[in-house]
Each structure stands twice: as C-alpha cells, then as structure tokens.
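Batch 3, record 17
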Amino acid sequence: MAGSSFGTIFKITTWGESHGKGLGVVVDGCPAGLPLDENDIQKFLNRRKPGQSKFTTPRKEDDAVEILSGVFEGKTTGTPISLVVYNQNQKSKDYSEIASYYRPGHADYTFDQKYGFRDYRGGGRSSGRETIGRVAAGAIAVKILNQLGITFLTYTRSIGPISISSQNFDAAQINENPLYMPDADAAENAENYLNACIAEQNSSGGVVECIIQGVPAGLGDPVFEKLNANLAKAVMSIGAVKGFEIGDGFDVAKATGKNNNDAFRIGADGRPVKTTNHAGGILGGMSDGSDIILRAAIKPTPSIAAPQQTVNKDGEEIDVSIKGRHDPIIVPRAVVVVESMAAVTLVDALFTNMSARMDSLEMFYQH
Amino acid sequence: MAGSSFGTIFKITTWGESHGKGLGVVVDGCPAGLPLDENDIQKFLNRRKPGQSKFTTPRKEDDAVEILSGVFEGKTTGTPISLVVYNQNQKSKDYSEIASYYRPGHADYTFDQKYGFRDYRGGGRSSGRETIGRVAAGAIAVKILNQLGITFLTYTRSIGPISISSQNFDAAQINENPLYMPDADAAENAENYLNACIAEQNSSGGVVECIIQGVPAGLGDPVFEKLNANLAKAVMSIGAVKGFEIGDGFDVAKATGKNNNDAFRIGADGRPVKTTNHAGGILGGMSDGSDIILRAAIKPTPSIAAPQQTVNKDGEEIDVSIKGRHDPIIVPRAVVVVESMAAVTLVDALFTNMSARMDSLEMFYQH
Amino acid sequence: MAGSSFGTIFKITTWGESHGKGLGVVVDGCPAGLPLDENDIQKFLNRRKPGQSKFTTPRKEDDAVEILSGVFEGKTTGTPISLVVYNQNQKSKDYSEIASYYRPGHADYTFDQKYGFRDYRGGGRSSGRETIGRVAAGAIAVKILNQLGITFLTYTRSIGPISISSQNFDAAQINENPLYMPDADAAENAENYLNACIAEQNSSGGVVECIIQGVPAGLGDPVFEKLNANLAKAVMSIGAVKGFEIGDGFDVAKATGKNNNDAFRIGADGRPVKTTNHAGGILGGMSDGSDIILRAAIKPTPSIAAPQQTVNKDGEEIDVSIKGRHDPIIVPRAVVVVESMAAVTLVDALFTNMSARMDSLEMFYQH
Amino acid sequence: MAGSSFGTIFKITTWGESHGKGLGVVVDGCPAGLPLDENDIQKFLNRRKPGQSKFTTPRKEDDAVEILSGVFEGKTTGTPISLVVYNQNQKSKDYSEIASYYRPGHADYTFDQKYGFRDYRGGGRSSGRETIGRVAAGAIAVKILNQLGITFLTYTRSIGPISISSQNFDAAQINENPLYMPDADAAENAENYLNACIAEQNSSGGVVECIIQGVPAGLGDPVFEKLNANLAKAVMSIGAVKGFEIGDGFDVAKATGKNNNDAFRIGADGRPVKTTNHAGGILGGMSDGSDIILRAAIKPTPSIAAPQQTVNKDGEEIDVSIKGRHDPIIVPRAVVVVESMAAVTLVDALFTNMSARMDSLEMFYQH
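Prediction for the assembled complex:
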C-alpha cells in the first residue's frame, strides 16, 4: 500500500532510492505566504550530511536541494512544494555483491518477502538517504513553527554507555562537536568509545532527545490522534529506531503516583502552570503548554565490517564481511531527522486543532 | 478534528464517555464470513473488568456487550459492526467536586484548554472506560488473526521495581494471579509492593509486554506505514502509556552491531530463519516472520487519595485529596487493551499488504 | 474495505441494516460548544419518514433518535456524538422469498459477488433506511453551518417529465405538498403522473436540487479536494443517484465561452461579485461566494410489483413480481439526504480551509 | 489543506504549476513487478499535447517525462515512482497583464480569496498543464489494469450541439480525427462548428465518455466508498468538469422502473448476466461485471479573445480581451485525463476489495 505519505492536513510524500536518479519530497498543505528559499532547506539537509566528522562516513554526497514548485516571488503559494536532490556519487560497484545475500539487521530479507525482489544497490528505499525527503520537509515545518513561536532543541543524549549529564548541560556545545552532544565531556568520552568500536569493526547505538518549546496547549485529539501517538508513529518510522518515549518515558514504570504527577500552581501570568514535567508536555494525549520532551532509541549501524553469519538467495549458509564505507554510529545523523519528523507532526496537529471549538470557528469566519 | 477512528482498510471508530448513556465502537472493514457472537467479545471485555482482584477497584460495572449490526446468521456480513455497552452504575455524586479543579496527571486541564469546557464526570472521554470500545474491537481483530494462525501472548512484565524473570517464565501463570504476571514469585512480590502503595495512598506504574506469533513476513509499508510505527501509534494512544519499544527496545542504545544484529541461518523448512530476535520481529519496518515483541510503559494511576497541590478554575492554588474509588495500578487492566490495539493494527497491515505484488494481484483476480 | 466513514476533520461513520437491531452514526470532529438535543436531529429524520403522503410507502416506522454520547449540559463536548435509531417494525416475512433470487436494479447481485452472501432481509445495508445515519449527521452539520450564516434550500426539481418552472418558483410551497416541489402547479401535475405510475405497477425517477447560500469564498482545495469533487462523491454515494452536476451542469456541454463565463462587477459592499452564476458557486474547485447550486439525478425505485425477468441462485431464469410495499418514487425522501450529504461535505471543507494562510494561522494562535 | 493526493492504497500526489520549473507526480502503492519505462508514460502524455490539430493551441510544449525512482531493471519495485516533466517553453510575458485582474471563468478570484495572493503566470496550479501529473499516473494505472484484463475506450461524445450517433459509431475513428470522436461525420460537423467559434472569438463545451470493460464484479464499498462515488470525485476534480453521470445518467430522472431496471438472464458461461445496462455497470455502488459507462460534461474554455466585463484588484470595473493563445475547446485534451482519473480510481478499488471475504484472505495467506 501507499506508505510514503505522512500527515492529514499538512502532508509530506517522499520518494527516491539511494541509487536512483534522486530523492525528494512533495510538501502539500503548506499555508500560503511563508517566506521560503533553497537556503532554508539546505541548512537542514547539511545537518545530516556525512563527512562532518571522522565518525560519519567520508562518502562525498552533494545534496543540493532544488525547489521545483510551490514558491512564487519568495513565498509559498499554498500549492504543493516539490523538492528534489539529485544523486551524484552513488557507485553501484561497491554493492554488487550484496545482491546475492541478506545482510543481517537490514531490510533486504523483508523487502524480498514483501515484493519478490529488491533494488539491492545500497539500501535502496531503506537507505539512510531516504531521510533526505523527511529532512527537507522538516525544514519547512520548522519554519512554520518558528513563525508561531515554537522552537526545537534536538541533540544526542547518549552513545553506547555514555550519557550527557544535567550538570554539564550546555546547548551551545551541540554544534561544537561532531556528535551533537550538549556536554563537552560526554562528547569526548563518546569519541573515545567510538574509536574503540571502529577498531573492532563494530558499531554503536544511542539515544536522541528532542525538546519542543512554546507549544500551545490543546494540540492532539483523543483518542487515536493523540499528539504523543502521532509523534510516536512519526519518530518510529525513522529507520533504526527501536524505542520511543515521552517525558519520563520508561522510568514511569518504576515511579509512583506521588512522584510522577505534575502538580499545578498559578504562574506569573495568572494562568495554571505545572511545577514539574514528568509528563513531558503531554497530558491526556494533548499538549499542556509545557515543554514537550521526547526520546528515540537508535540501534547500532547494522553494516559492520566484522564477519557475520547469514544466508544467500540459494539457501546456503555463508559468512560475510560487508565491504564498503560504514558509519560506526547513526545517531548524530538522526538528530535532524527526529527533529524533522516531530516538526511535521506538530504542524499537522496545529492545523487539525483549529476546528475544536464553535467560538473560534465563528471568530475565524467573521471577516 | 475527528480523532476517534483508527485504521485504513480495517477501521474502528469508538465513542462514549464514562457517564454518558454508553460506550461503543463501530468496526468497519471486517471481512464477510467470520463467525461472530456476543460471547467472543464479552470474553475480551471481561479481561478489563475491575473487581477481579483486590488491586483493581471494586466498582461494580456491568459491561454486557450487544451487537447492533453487521452480523447475520452467526457470521459477519462485511458491513459495519456496531457494538455497544450501556453504562449502568455510574453515579455522578462521587465526582461533582472535581468539576472545579484540575486533577494532577489527568486530562482535565488539557480538555479545558482545547474545548473550553469538559464533561467533568469521571474521566469523561479520557476515562479508563473509553477502552471498552478498543477492547470490543480487539476481540474481533484477534478472531480474524487467529483464523490466519496468528496468536497473542500478552501479560504484565513488571510492576514498579518487580519484574518477571525468564527462568521463572510460565505462561500458564498469567491467568492464575490478578496481576496477569507469567511468574508466580514475581506476582507475589508485586502484590506485597502494591499493598504498600495502598497503605501510603499511592499508586504504581509498570510495563505490559505483548508477543505476537505466526505473523507472515512482509507486513508494513516503508516508509511511514512501517509496522512498528503503526504499532507505536496504536499503543501510545492508550491512556497512561508514556513509552513504547520493539524487540530490545531502549537497550539497543547501549548495544553494538555485533551483539544487536540477528544472524540468518537456514531453518528446518529450508527457508531463512533468524538465530536471535533482537529486532523483535520487525526489520526495515516490515515483519520478518519471527515473533513480534513489543512493550508499553504505563504510568502510575494519577488519581490517588494522598493530598496534592493543584489549582481551581478561579485561579486559586489549593490542596486536594481525590476522594472515591481508585486503582493503585492500571497495568493489569491495560494488558487486554495493548493486545487489542496491536491486533487491530495487525489486521490493517495484513489487508493493506495484499496489493504489494503484481503476481499475487493477478492470482487473486483470476477466478 | 472500511467504506462507512466520510470526511477528514469532520467525519461521520454510519452503521446498521434495515432488519438489524438499529441504525446509527458516530459524528466525530464536531466542535465543542454547539447547542444540540434530540429535537434538532428528529426534525431532520422526520423529513425522510414515509407515510407523509400517499406517494411514500405506508410502512409504519418509528424513527426516534437517541443521543448516546458527545453532549453534556445541552452542548457538544467535542467528543464523538453517537446517535442511534432502533428498528421497531421490520418484519422479515415480507422478504423471505427474495433471499433466493436477484432483484433487478438492486444490489443483491453485487453484494453476493463481493461478500459471498448477504443479509437478504429488506435491502440490508443498501436499504433506504441506511440514510438514517446520514440524515442524523446532516442535522448536526446543518446546525453548525447555520451558526456561521450558511443556509440550505433543497427540493424536488422534477419528477419524470414534470419540472418546476422559474416563473412559478415559490419556496414556501416546498412543505405544502408531499413531493417537496416549490411550484404548486408542477406538484399537482406530478401527483397525477405518479398516480398513473402506481396504476401501472411502475415507478418514476426525478431530480433533487440544492441551493447553499452564504458560503464564504475559498473553500475546497485544488486539485483533488475540490469542493465540487467532494460534493459529487458525497451525493453520488446516496443510493439510486446516477448523475450529479454543479451550476449549469450538463448544459455547459452545449454552451459557449461567451454565454457560460460569469462576469465580475463591483458589488454594493465594494467587493467583486458575479453578474451571473453559470458556475454554480464554484470556480477552480473553490467556492466563489455566490450560491452553490447542485443537482442529483435519481433513478426510479427498482422494486416494482410488475413482473420482471431475473435469475435465482440456482442459475435458473425466472419471472418475479416483488411483493410488499413499494414507493413509486424515491425523490421526495432523498431531498433531506442530499441536503445532509452536502452539509457534511461543507463542514469538512470549512474546517480544512482554516490553515490555508500563514496570516490567519498566526492570528488564530495569538491568544 | 493537502489537496494534491488521491487514493487510499494506490495513491497519486501531483505537483507543479504552468510556469514553475516543472510538473510531476509521485505514484505510491504501485505493486512490485510491473514492467514499466518512460515510453509507457510518454504515450499517454502525448494524447494531451496541443498542436496535434488546428483546434488545440499551437503552443510548443516539450513534455518529455522522466522516471526518477521506483523502477529497477525495467520493473516497478513497489516503492514510490516519481515522474517529472520539466517546463520548457513557458514565457511569462504573455500573461503579465492578467496579474492585475480576475479573468471570468477562471480560478484567479477564488485563489486570491483562499490564499491572499496567487501565481498569476498562466493558470498557475489550475492551468491545464496540471493534468500532466494525472495523466502520467494514469498511464501506470492503465498498465496495471490491462495486465488484469481491464481495458478503456474513451472519446469525445459531443461538442456543442453535435453528438456522435450509435449507428455511425466506429472506435477506429477515434484516433483518425483531432477531436477524438468515434464517428467521422460527427467529427466533420464538429470541426465546422469549432471554426465558427474561432471566427467569433468564442469557445465550446462538450462531453467525454469513457467505457471500461472487463471489470470484475464487487468493486467499491458501501456506503461512502461506492465505486461511482469515487469515480465522480476523481472525474469532477478535473478542471472545467461541471457534471458527471453513470449509465443512463440524468436520463434516469425521466425514466420508469420498467424501462430502467436491468433484467438478469443466465449467460453462456452459466453465470448471471444483465440483458441491458442502464445502470452503467454499477449497482448498489459496486461494479456488476458489465461495462462501466461514465460521462463528464466539460465547460467551454474560459479564456476567449472576445471582450468581457470584469474587475481588477483596485476594485475597478474594466473590460478585457484576454490576449494570447487559446484553445476553442478543452474536450479533446480532456479525453486522456478522464481515462486516467477513472483508471487510478479503479486500481484503488481493486486493491481495497481484496480483504472483503475471510475465505479469500485465508487463501491469500496460505503459502
């Protein structure tokens, strides 16, 4: 079935494989009047580009985005915005061998099961390059949200056994190290850990954390269109994500009502405000006005050079070492992808919330 | 926006509040020819009924389900199946006071923010009784899946600090203790823990685990309709769920490629089979033929008798003790809800997968 | 597939068969704060009830509607509104014979082809009683629209060869004759025509026309969610409808640019206004601020007492006379159904239009 | 709202404006294993290209399509197929003047009302070039359907007052005249009629008819996803379409039950077959196995050189003559667009029908 669209009123449709002509996205339902140009989108795409650190693969990828429709005289027209990035440097020869077997941890086997065959070059549709469409769309979503006072802070929270610490937390550090960690010490430790992984032909997992600020209360719809449910779907649709949590997440399982409930007090502006935020900004499936805090658990890069057991298409058991260029860690590249998917979800929630009350409806249609 | 429907080809629409006339669900897209009667559904609803243990509230709820449409001569007709459970014993007087303030941890505040007012009786639309519709639909979904050889094993994995252990795992124990734990020792320890909570006017969180067996490979659609993404949305739409994970879940963050990848071997039937299942049965967003393993982290019941700080509608800070009948734990009641949502998701994935290949399409339409 | 829901943000889900326990609808996405009670809905349902004229069947149908959820203290809460009408007087014995053959012009044959069997009692899911859910939902939709200054004028435009005439047009006549024609002379001629049909054991078709006034400009979304396209789907989903048109409709085929274009002038309020309305209020798929004019062509009632040729389930050719109580005309009963479906479509279009522009988005979220 | 996608399981998303960089479509949900290349699509696009007759505008448009993704080694992979046609010859200077006023019969006014401004060059998103995406997708849909034995015959049925006649009907004539009429005499008369229109600086409307053969019975879902309802939405979403009908269409309004019902007989293969086809192949909203016959009424080209009254953006009443290159008739160009939209709808209906019965579900999942 058509699985490449996400969203209801604000809908993104991505396309493209790692070794096809290009990848892109159609962003449909963007309101008219948003200033937009290629730069806005390129900034986001650059955050996913490898080669920025020794820990992300030195494949040279020219990911220059082009806007093909939907923008006129510097502003969105309200019509679909088609964005494309042409593939420049995808050589097939590095991958020809893997056509014959199923790489462990990859979607080779399941693609074959579902479709009967697959584009084996690189990861095809499940390649990391598939995130290009998501991130290009995310750039637009974040721009819309920024105009409404909603901002994002997304970073690597942990790599393997190394986590950032709250005492050392410094948002300014995020762009100062190639691992996007807001904690210089943790970043250094993590780099050492990753060097060890590389030496062992191994890879590591980690956690991305995303904080969204300035979200108005009431976004999300009981019961199935809860904001946390849609964020979960959005983030878990990203390749390599095996877990998702909001607020205290899995820690709530060990908590009690007394230490998990967020109490209410009256804030400076005379309105209710929570004194803690164990809920992570979502209550009863709707945003409650405090920061939304979410996390994605990302598995280690499946492609490692170390020998692995698998089977080939002739039904033979074989050992393989996946040649080629591998990232020992996906997490830093996933930071902007998590942010993008969260942003796209939030825009849709903002739009679908507008008809919640008769009084706002009447006000809206009165001029 | 309309948030009470879930699914594309197999779609459920729930309705009802805890203190309205009743609750129910319309199940649309159920194939014709499935044997179905009220018993099939009642069995499932009974798994959520309180009063089965001292740890679930002794509110007397008669939840007899009635089939209003969609079944003829004992089989589904392919037309929408409307199910209803009438509310019998919902007295308002226990709740009248809470109309005036926002209970911490509840959706009172966010409902008010979104809609301007709320049905304050009980939890209204966010009451635990809202799960009646989900579970009734789940009964039908599980019956469809069983006919196709797909089965569920769902239980409480942990309560507070007490987890089941793999050595002691015994599925037969699930229905032998009121906490639905497949480990008699863990169940006993958990009961002691909960007694302590009750004594302190407190509540506890926990984790539900669900194993799905017999799932054919290839279900789910890259990139946004991945099976794990839809399962995440389905399960996280359940009230009180703050985290979701597949396979090794958040543990993947600390793993390495060598110990996280599932190797392939040739199985007894000459077909590829995985030697481990860190992936939890889903690879590249599609089922891979092994067991699907998922987990939901559930927060402690927000309604506790202990005093809490909050604010009332007049903007005053107050202390409240929420009177009435409270569960110290939601988790055992959530077991059948998690199973139901997973089942509904899986049915939809089975249906939407049927058009994946030209050859099966041609075979299907050839008689 | 699930085919019983209609709408995106404002979504209705109907259920029920003519001889099941009841029929109903879940209306999801209704804004909170709309005053609503059973009367509002009953008024609409009464417009479809037979027995109001000698031309609609004297089957006694008690169609008292009940609100089961979604309303509190006289206003909608924003949660799904479940409405039910219980079947009172549906005897199976009138229909038992038809289980064995396919009635011409009915869905018996296609239901069998699709599902393998069918509920043969009455029309089952394709019975005229299926419109109960649509009309109940339509009552709510019209109430929302009325609050925003949008009103409907729906009536029978023609029956067989007899059409209303513009010179004789008198809206007040609509409720003065059982055929709902806004032209007393035409109504009289049509009654004579129908008497002739009855005498011949025959039935007649006709056209329903619906005029919607006060619609703001800009509703509808290029390219596939055009307002006329959604109205077409909504109205053509009504049983027995074989044609749909907007404005001059099929007459445009014989027109020329000079006599079909609607010129613009400046209106009394200084804003553009059209001098004619060949377009029927929709231009480029969006409402243009003038009256929306649409028409539905309705075929003759298929169930007639006159002998017809058909086949039975054993593959034999037979002649049948369909016994029982038949309407010689569907059209008057369809008037409120067309209005209801148009209303439901328009509400959805109003809601989905709210996010069209950045400036209104910013204004909406600024308090 | 996002209005540029159509379909549920087989979904097309179009993008592009007449004077942007290009136009295209993403076709998502195409089954894997369908042989496909640019030729397949180009053939369809060529059927819409102007310049093939003196009656379609001599604008030189190079509409060479390119496949950017979704095809590997000559077959579809099941992943989204992105198609693009780059704009080559769209000069803005012909259109600069119209930025200042609202052309009668065009969407200028409604676009402004909805979005606050518009891309005034050519028709922008409502240009006839928008059909490029639809037709490219239609090529793929028709190819899928052909593989399943379903074929299309689409043509111009009438232009202005000139209709084809059944006695003279000759499908072979369709491609022998630039008006795509299956009747050489009617084509000649129509050409004369159009010459007269051109001389008067006028334009004409007409009707497109489409016959679909080989459709299996049972496609479409009561009540809102009826096949005729979805075909109506698909076809009425095409620009300039003001009416849609199935089978006898609006003629049913003047018919009686005796002459409108299609009787059943036993066919050569021992299965029921209808003796007539007033229903146009759809009964109760589902295909009945006979030919599906549908018609679209298309209004005259709004852009005519003759003077017209309108208003400009400064609120002044003015007279305009729309300069530039105009088609006196849209209908022949719309033939392939109607066929494409019908095909896309039919593919989706085929896919969504596969889960209608438990027995076929069980058969499907048994290997």
